Structure formats: structure tokens, C-alpha cells
Amino acid sequence: QNPFRRRSRSRCGGWQPAVVALLLLCPASFGICQPALFDSAPLASAYERMSAAQYEIGTKLVALLRVGPGASVLDLGCGTGRLASYVCRITGPKGKVFGLDPSPYRIAIAERRARRGLSFAVGGSGDLSALPSRSFDVVYLNYVLHWIDDRRRALQEIHRILKPGGKLGISFEDTSRPSDLDELIEQSAKEVVGRIPPKLFLSTAPLGLTELEEMLQKSGFRVLRLKKVESIDRARSPEELLAFWRASSAGRFLSGVSEETRCRIGRRIQERLAAQTDREIRIVSDTLLLVAERGAAD
What we know:
Radius of gyration: 19 Å
């Protein structure tokens, strides 16, 4: 059931309405020199077009979770709903898939995919208290956990809403092997401002495997499976790559600096990328897929 339902848009009957639309984000124009921190309709549309790599990783996470027909699934940080729609095809007519994302612009796109057994709402990890305990077989976060400030609380809430024996799936970048482009961004920032500004990268803070495993254990989870896969993002030009970073971060890329400095760093990144290649840009990184379980006796 979907307690976050917006009555005018839901296509699933019988849901109980409750909390809606926390973390509503103000519109921002699309472009590296535009105000950061806020999502917009153009950014959401750009992410829908450019997020193939994240989707592919998500399908691998779902496979590792062994989602089956009839399952009740929460996609936390569902974005534009593409992966949730894929999962709905697996869970079938007796299953339920609920997608939750803090961006109303991404949910607006996701709702075009809504159908029986698949619904979406605006909300984030801070809204999970509105969901009943022991209501999901599976909860997954595909490239999402690094966005969450209070991760311990989020994991505790996920533990609460999972049924005993329920599974949690998380995909996240392997911080032990940063991509070459991370270094390029840092060097570009240093050349422009002489230092690495705070909140330069996309996430609130890096997420290491050891730290995550400790948090999971303290939240009552047991890690079942861990798999490393290679992720490749592609861009045809430096401009397209910067557009992807901005879209995938909902406007947060280079959010720790002023607009003028953000423009200068963006231009320097473009110059360095253009000097390195005249063909397709490939961003290769390692992604960790983790599956944990809530104890059956909890």
C-alpha cells in the first residue's frame, strides 16, 4: 500500500493517504553555470535520457536480491522510475512495487510508468516513519545511500519496515578505487581556487564498505552477499559529461562553491577532457552490490 499517495495521480486503488511531498525542491535551470542544489524538470528529463549505466547496475542488484513474483518492494530513491518498472514486471500481478524519491520532477516522469502494482510518491528517507512496520519483502537503494545524511537512522527505519527475513539491497561506488575522473575534477578545482572545496563531489560524504557493514550490523542486518561489478558511463563530449553529472546529482554537482567559481571549474574540466580525447569519454569505476537480511526472529 502507498501511504504517500497523491490522490489526483495515483492509479492504484485502496491506498491509505498520509504524508506527502517532503523535500520539495525549487526549480533550477539546466547547465553547469546555473544555481546548484535544486532539481528541475530539465534536469530530471536529462537524467531519464542519460542514466542507462545506473539502470543496468540496478538490474544486477535486483538479480542479486533474487526478487520474485508476488514480492512487496520499496525502491528508495527511485528517480524517474525506470528500475521500479522493471521490478514490477518481475513481481507480477500479485506483487507491489512502491517508488519513493524526494524530487517531484523525477516522480512526475516516474508516474507515467505507474500501473497496477506500481506506484510512486514524493518523499525521502526521512519519511519512512509513515510506512507500516513489517510491510516489505525487499527494500533497495540503487546509488542512493551516499545522498542520505543520517544513514544510521535510515537503515534503522528500513529494518523496521522490512518483514522478518526481508532483504535490503544497496549499490554504491567502491571508494577503494576512485575513478580517474575524480582526480581530474579535484585537480581542476585546485587549479582554479587553489584547494578542493567542500562538497565538491556528488555525495554528502564518501561511503566505505567497512563503515557500511558496521552500520548494517548495528541496525540489525546480516550481510548475505557482496559482489563487485564494473560500471561504465559514456559521454560523447565534455559538455555531455558535465550535463550528466549535474543531472545525476539533481543539481548538486560543485554545489560547495559560488556560481562564478562553479563556472570556472566547469570550464577547466571541459578543457582538460577535450585535451585528453577526441572520441567517446568512458568513465570506468567499480560498484559494490550488497545484500543484507533482517533476521527472521527480529
